[in-house]
Design a protein that fits this description.
38% of the residues lie in helices and 17% in strands. It is built from 12 helices and 12 strands. The protein has helices at 17-23, 60-72, 102-113, 145-161, 175-185, 206-211, 215-218, 234-246, 260-270, 280-291, 297-310, 321-327, and strands at residues 33-40, 46-48, 56-59, 77-82, 118-123, 137-138, 141-142, 165-168, 192-199, 250-254, 274-278, 315-318. The protein has an 8-stranded parallel β-barrel, surrounded by 9 helices. A two-stranded antiparallel ribbon has the order 6-7. The chain is globular and about 70 Å long. 45% of the residues are buried. Bound molecules: ligand PBG. Ligand PBG binds at residues 122, 124, 126, 134, 169-170, 205, 208-209, 223, 279-280.
C-alpha cells in the first residue's frame, strides 16, 4: 500500500529548520497580542505585583509610556485594569462610571499620546465594589438587572473617554444587548463590544485580584453564581450565541490554556473574532516555575502562544505580550 513506511516518513519535513518553517500550520505575530496593563493613581509610580513577576501597576504617565512601548513593538491593543483606591469602593460602585475616574483619565491620556493604539476597557464592577463582586449585592444575591443598568453607565463613561472596545467581563445575563443599545443611542456606534462570553469561575484569577486589590474585599466569596462552571462546555456555546445575538463584535474565552477545547468549539461554531485570555494564574505558574529553574520559561511561553493559535484564537491576551513581541523580533 502506498503511503506506508518507509515511503512515508513524516520526519522528512521536520529535518531542517527551513522545512519546518515551510510547513508550519500556524503563524504568530505581534498582531495577535493584547497587553493587559494595571493602572493606579500617582505620578511616576510603578508598583510590583508580588504574585506576578515583572508585572507592575503603573501611574497614568507610566501607562502612557507602556502604550508607546506597545506601539513600537507592533502590539495592536492594550487592556486597562484599574487598582482603585480602597476609599473609592462602595456598595453601589458609583466610581465605576465617574467620568473623571482613574480609567477614564488613563484612556484619555493614552489615546491622546497614541491614537493608533486600540484601548480596551473592562466592564465589570469588581474594582469598585466594597465586597469585590462584579455586580451589586442584596441579601447575598448578586443582582442581575440592577447591575446591568450600572454596567451601561460604566460603558458610556468609558466610550465618552475614548475607549475603542468595551469588554463586559461580568457575566450578567443580557448585558451585551443593553450596552449595545445604550452605545447606539448615545452616538457611540463604532465602539466595539468584546464580550467575555465564556468566562469561568476560576481560581486562576487569584493574582489578578491581588493586582487590583479586590482579593481582600472578596475574601472567601466566590463568583460561581455568575461565572461559568468549569465542568461545562455546551453552556459556553449558548453564552456565545446570546452575546452575538445581542450585538457582540468579538468574543473572549477565559481562562486560556486549560480551556482550549472551549475556544476551539466556539471558533468552529461561530467563526467570529475569538480571543483567549492567558490569565494571571497561568502567567504566575509559568513564571514561578521558570524562576525556580524548573522549566525553560521562554520556550514554554512561546509554546503556549502557538497552542492558542492552533486552537483557533484570533488573538491572545497575555501579560507577557511585550516579551512575546520582542522574541518575535519587535523593535523596542
Ligand atoms: C473582572 C476581571 C477578572 C479578570 C479580568 N477581569 C477577575 C475576576 O473575574 O475575578 C481576571 C484576569 C486575570 O486573572 O488575569 N471581572
Amino acid at each position: 500500500m502506498r503511503g506506508r513506511f518507509p515511503r512515508t516518513r513524516l520526519r522528512r519535513n521536520r529535518m531542517a529548520e527551513w522545512s519546518r518553517r515551510l510547513v508550519a500550520e500556524t503563524r504568530l505575530s505581534a498582531d495577535d497580542l493584547i497587553w493587559p496593563v494595571f493602572i493606579q493613581e500617582g505620578q511616576n509610580r510603578r508598583t510590583a505585583v508580588d504574585s506576578m513577576p515583572d508585572v507592575e501597576r503603573l501611574s497614568i504617565d507610566q501607562a502612557v509610556r507602556a502604550a508607546e512601548t506597545a506601539v513600537s513593538l507592533g502590539i495592536p491593543a492594550i487592556a486597562l485594569f484599574p487598582a482603585v483606591d480602597p476609599g473609592l469602593k462602595s456598595d453601589d460602585a458609583c466610581e465605576a462610571f465617574n467620568p473623571k475616574g482613574l480609567v477614564c483619565r488613563a484612556v484619555q491620556a493614552v489615546k491622546k499620546a497614541q491614537p493608533g493604539l486600540g484601548v480596551i476597557c473592562d466592564v465589570a464592577l469588581d474594582p469598585y465594589t466594597s465586597h469585590g463582586h462584579d455586580g451589586l449585592v442584596r441579601d447575598g444575591e448578586i443582582l442581575n438587572d440592577e447591575t446591568v443598568a450600572v454596567l451601561c453607565k460604566q460603558s458610556l463613561a468609558l466610550a465618552a473617554a475614548g475607549a475603542d472596545i468595551v469588554a463586559p467581563s461580568d457575566m450578567m445575563d443580557g448585558r451585551v444587548g443593553v450596552i449595545r443599545d445604550a452605545l447606539e443611542s448615545e452616538g457611540f456606534k463604532n465602539v466595539r463590544i468584546l464580550a467575555y462570553a465564556a468566562k469561568y469561575a476560576s481560581a486562576l484569577y487569584g493574582p489578578f485580584r491581588d493586582a487590583v486589590h479586590s482579593a481582600g474585599p472578596l475574601g472567601a466569596g466566590d463568583k460561581r453564581s455568575y461565572q461559568m462552571d468549569p465542568a461545562n462546555g455546551d453552556e459556553a456555546l449558548r453564552e456565545v450565541a446570546l452575546d452575538i445575538a445581542e450585538g457582540a463584535d468579538m468574543i473572549m474565552v477565559k481562562p486560556g490554556l486549560p480551556y482550549l477545547d472551549v475556544l476551539w468549539r466556539i471558533k468552529q461554531a461561530f467563526g467570529l473574532p475569538t480571543f483567549a485570555y492567558q490569565v494571571s494564574g497561568e502567567y504566575a505558574m509559568l513564571k514561578a516555575a521558570a524562576r525556580e529553574g524548573w522549566l525553560d520559561g521562554d520556550r514554554v511561553l512561546m509554546e503556549t502562544m502557538f497552542c492558542f493559535k492552533r486552537a483557533g484564537a484570533d488573538g491572545i491576551v497575555t501579560y507577557a505580550a511585550p516579551e512575546v513581541a520582542r522574541r518575535l523580533g519587535g523593535a523596542a
